[in-house]
Amino acid sequence: MRAFIATAVLLALVAVATAPVASATTSEPDWTDDGYFESPSRSDDAPDDAAPPDRPSAVLDGDGVTMSSDRSLATGLQAAPAGNRIVGSAIAAGGTAVVSGGALTKLASVTDRTATRIGGADRYATAIGLSATHFPDGAAEVWLATGENFPDGITASAIAGAHRGPVLLTRTASLPASVAAELVRLAPTRVWVVGGTGVVSDGVVATVRRTLPGATVARVAGQDRYATAAAIAKTFVASSDVVFVASGQNFPDALSTGPAAARRKAPTLLVTATAVPAATEAQLRRLHPTTVYVIGGSGVVSDGVMSRIRNITGGSASRVSGADRFATASAVADRFFTPTTPSLIVANAFSFADGVTAGAVAGTLASPLVLADGRSTPPRVTVDAARRVSWWLPSEGRVLRYTVVAHPDDEFSAWSLLGARDARRYDVIIVLTTGESSSYCDGDPVSNQWMSQQYLPQPQPTGEQYSDRCKTHRMDSWREFMRRAGFTGTAPPESLVGGPQTFGGRTIPVPLARSASGATVEAGSYQLSIGADHAVVAFDMGLLTADEVLWAILTTRGLAERFPTQVEGDVVGAGFYNDGSSGYSNTSADHKAVYTLLGSVDLGLPGSQYSPVGHAQSARAFGATVANYCGFMCHPAAPSPFRGSMGRFEYAYGWLANGYWPPGEFDQRAGFSRYQSFAKWF
């Protein structure tokens, strides 16, 4: 009797049982010269002992990713079809010298966005271009700051974004004629001149008044940059539960703060690395926020300053930072923006001016600002953050995401995406095999020193390859893991049988598999179970070919009318594949079949197609971090920071690795790493 043990997968899953785990983070490793690790980029960025971000934060100087219209696996990152998969604009602020054409093109492709550049001959012209493009009908309020230094413009950008107005730049001693012309076009009723006479002279203010005789022109300023930021907060923010704080001594970490603060209608205040200036303290006491977000590592805003902020407000102070300026901007995008943002704004990390004016536009568009430089390859953390805020999601309702799992336990290699649940997404898990060909099924009893803490196959010994007992044990573990990971509430499974499929004008036959007796049989039977938030389609196809993976996906897509939504989005492969020279190598034939199919056949969905790959593999396009990784992979035998109570994955699947799967940051065994990299194909 053939046993499609996948039926057991879907029986009466119960509420989530989360194991208590230790929670910890660790500094990211330095990159080596061979390209597997990448070195921190700038001497003025946060030091190595800065508080680590919630995600890897190295800077990509070059990872071998190439652009090509040829959709082959060898070419890596692919350009999306012009009329498909577009979720908004990727806007470069400034010319090609500050955000290169190659970097913009790659960011637009990997984020499924239309590349747009707004730049001028200088910073004043770029600010005018941003204003003209995003405020075509004028603006009621305009903020005018010096283009010769950063602090006043950065703190003004948050307020301008919240009030849906532009920031224009001026020289200290004279108002450029082009800026005066833009003021006339905007026809504001009020112009706010930010900063004292040392940064924007009284002569400039007089010129603005002559240019706009019907407008109110008011200066908002203090005796220094800290007091000016405080004056802006006092003028525009009557109350706020949230305040953003950044360094007033250097601009990189503060650049991305404006759009995030604008979203919360919160002010940005400035501090030094070691002290809270009196003007800043006065505003913190006045506003009395429950949360202060400190942007930047401990090298730019010390832990002592954070402690002082807590004492002043009586609330919490939370650091949002990365190992460098690129990673800090990415961490801000991760923390304060959710998919799908209307736009993605990209500015140069080493020149403040375009970022100041772009920050106000980003705030108006409710979009993050990420950082790049003049090189043709964007920083890796920038790509990753940009992709995360660009998931294809419908403007209303829900979208189907298909996750294609090669073997039970391989789902974890896509968990950084699969586990990021979103109310607008309906997950469809496609399990292709029962893992019955596993070398772990050798007929020997399971024995390891952590047996008493783990879910183990019973009764022992386990079955041999292709046996019904092996299938049972693999799928029992899969069922237990998914239950503990929160995939509960599906209806009892129903058995269905699929027939041949047609795709691209050719017939895709029913797959073949090996029975328990060793005979070759058709593998058309599968199990379907549907829940409110996800569905599982469980096949029993044995060794896989790319056509068999295609058949399973097509069969599943044919079930769409059974799901709560019929709007299709992304396809995510689960089965780590790495044939590169760096990292953990995995060239399993089944994994390769999933990788090959998703990388060579455009399924034509509105979303994109992804496969988990090695961290340094040329096809890698972006990455993501598994939320609560310790909850999955912590283990009593693990090194710090992963030592702790048994995680869900270790509990369910420990028997497949003698009781312990080593956890870690990148390219861990079988792809069960905290940070997971993906190829993006179509």
UniProtKB/TrEMBL annotation:
Residues 1-24 form the signal peptide. It comes from the Bacteria. Keywords: Signal. The lineage of its organism: Bacteria, Bacillati, Actinomycetota, Actinomycetes, Micrococcales. Residues 23-62 are annotated as: Disordered. It comes from Agromyces tropicus. PANTHER family: GERMINATION-SPECIFIC N-ACETYLMURAMOYL-L-ALANINE AMIDASE, N-ACETYLMURAMOYL-L-ALANINE AMIDASE-RELATED. InterPro entries: Bact_Sporulation_Assoc (IPR051922), Cell_wall-bd_2 (IPR007253). Pfam families: CW_binding_2. This is Cell wall-binding repeat-containing protein.
